[in-house]
Write a structure and sequence with these properties.
The chain has 341 residues and is α/β, with parallel strands linked by helices. It folds into two domains: 2-64, 2-Layer Sandwich (Alpha-Beta Plaits), CATH 3.30.70.1140; 84-340, Aldolase class I (TIM Barrel). Helix content is 32%, strand content 19%. An eight-stranded parallel barrel has the order 7-8-9-10-11-12-13-14, surrounded by five helices. Strands 2-3-1-4 form a four-stranded antiparallel β-sheet, with helices on one face. α2 (108-120) runs parallel beside α3, α5 runs parallel beside α6 and α9 packs parallel to α10. The longest helix has 18 residues, at 320-337. The chain is elongated. The protein binds phosphoenolpyruvate and manganese (II) ion. Manganese (II) ion is lined by residues 103, 273, 299, 309-310.
Length: 341
């Protein structure tokens, strides 16, 4: 960490602060500038206590951390792209995947019809959401346990990998046999208790970015999973809350590029929750791939107009093949330009 002292800091202040730095298990190196003195403090910032506690001393102007808050997910730690295995289907390291499915499971017939359409187009990972954590308690909350049963039945018939959102630690066990990947939604993006529990579930995790999370908070949330034993994490950018309601959420493509630079974890883009309306989904999907995403998460429903949740943004599963055909050149370009691991 770096401590910048105020102009008036005396030799006694410098000695006192250096002693405090030593007592906090860092080695101080004093750098005397023309106008101000800086103390560079050598020590592991992740395992030691932070020196930010010293920022309230009268002779201290500011204290800066040097190390990032995330280590295991950083590219410095692991330079090559990670590859995440979702029930035998790979994401990252040159493997581009489209995860598609309805916003929520509404009935056996609805999920079956969606999975039939989507697997016919070659989709290998299905969104199957028995639980729907919603902003309003009056909105459809998912079929819950009945939805898990439907998921199990449909999976048995189509033998396809499934990703399911887990609203809290209590729902992990009931879905562990059927979910090939757990999703942490934007509303739970910094629920550290859930992340710690999920890290022990033995399944990969799709971690959405919170609707107002910084990239650092997003990657640090991923660090919770990795440091607690789950190295198989996929990051998902789904758009931020913004002043402009022209789209449902502001798709932060810069963050996709930054996350790919800072981290070895695969990043997917969710154009559906960013767009909020289906006719914008193709453009945002193309943009996500162009920004460096390793895949997309797209909502598709057999009868989107009558969907119980997110009706305006879901694509029609029966015509998903047409959407894919238009996207194909961008998928091929993404495959050709990603470095293969
Ligand atoms: C979802 O993917 O089902 C969802 C609810 O999205 P988000 O958490 O990004 O709002
Ligand atoms: Mn949705």
């Amino acid at each position: 960490m770096i401590i910048v002292l105020k102009r008036h800091a005396s030799e006694t202040d410098i000695a006192t602060i250096s002693d405090l730095v030593c007592s906090l298990r860092y080695q101080p190196r004093i750098i005397r500038g023309v106008e101000q003195t800086v103390i560079a403090c050598i020590g592991d910032e992740l395992s030691n206590r932070s020196l930010e506690v010293l920022s309230s001393l009268p002779a201290v102007e500011s204290v800066f951390p040097v190390q990032k808050k995330f280590k295991l997910v950083s590219r410095e730690y692991h330079p090559n792209d990670s590859v995440v295995n979702v029930g035998g289907v790979l994401i990252g390291g040159g493997n581009i995947q489209i995860i598609a499915g309805p916003c929520a499971i509404e009935s056996y017939d609805q999920l079956r019809a969606a999975v039939k359409d989507l697997t016919a187009c070659g989709m290998k990972i299905i969104r199957a959401m028995p639980f729907k954590p919603r902003t309003s308690p009056y909105d459809f909350q998912g079929l819950k346990l009945d939805g898990v049963k439907i998921m199990r039945d449909v999976k048995a018939e189509f033998n396809v990998a499934m990703v399911a959102e887990v609203p809290g630690p209590a729902q992990i066990e009931m879905m562990r046999d059927v979910a090939d990947m757990f999703q942490v939604g934007a509303r739970n993006a910094q629920n550290y208790d859930l992340l710690e529990h999920l890290a022990h579930a033995g399944r990969p995790v799709l971690l959405k970015r919170g609707m107002a999370s910084t990239v650092e908070e997003w990657l640090t949330a991923a660090e919770y999973l990795v440091v607690n034993g789950c190295p198989q994490v996929v990051l998902c950018e789904r758009g931020l809350r913004s002043f402009d309601k022209a789209t449902r959420n502001l798709l932060d493509l810069g963050a996709v590029a930054v996350a790919r630079q800072l981290s070895h974890l695969p990043v997917v883009v969710d154009p559906s929750h960013a767009a909020g309306v289906r006719n914008l989904v193709p453009a945002l999907a193309r943009a996500g791939l162009a920004a460096g995403a390793d895949g997309l998460l797209i909502e598709a429903h057999p009868d989107p107009v009558n969907a119980f949740s997110d009706a305006p943004q879901q694509l029609e599963s029966a015509s998903f093949g047409e959407f894919l055909k238009e996207l194909e050149p961008w998928i091929e370009l993404a495959k050709a330009t990603r470095k293969r691991v």
